[in-house]
Amino acid sequence: MHTINSISEFHRQLSLPAPLHPLISVIDVAGIKPAESDIWEQFCVNFYSISLKKDVTATLKYGQHYYDFDKGTMNFIAPKQIQSLTIAEIRKMNTECGKGYMLLFHPDFLYTHPLASKIKSYNFFSYALNEALHLSEREEKDIIEIFLKIESEYQHIDKPYPRNHFVAN
Questions:
Q1: Least C-beta-crowded within 10 Å: which of 14, 62, 130, 131?
Q2: Please, how many CA atoms are within 13 Å of residue 44, restricted to the half-sphere of its CB?
Q3: What is the dihedral sign for C-alpha 49, 22, 146, 115?
Q4: Cβ partners under 8 Å of residue 60, min gap 6
């Protein structure tokens, strides 16, 4: 099993430019081109992922179950949870990836904030809840707007805001 330790490494594996912040990133799913590599056969990441994806032709195995992103769905993945994609699925993604956004944040981003310990109790980051959340069009719009606001916050600053600024907002 391959472990992707940083958001920067994840960006590289998806053929994306380096993230603007080492601990948080918003990715436009339409722009990803996963490397055709055996790392995807069984991997985990050492950061949190909140994704809203639509029209994605590939299916992601998460634990023992599969996520289907054909319709607008939202999923939550905690660090060290096992995921997998086959090379055939990678090839599908490289021809037509679909659309949506991924919000990635490293646990260190929450360091010293009360959310750092509280997030572990959120069951939607758990294998036990293996269903993706299906959203209405309005909810999708709202979530995308939030993702883009977060991205704007860390893109247009000369020096990083304190973490509490992001977490509080």
A1: 131
A2: 9
A3: positive
A4: 66, 67, 69, 83, 84, 85, 89
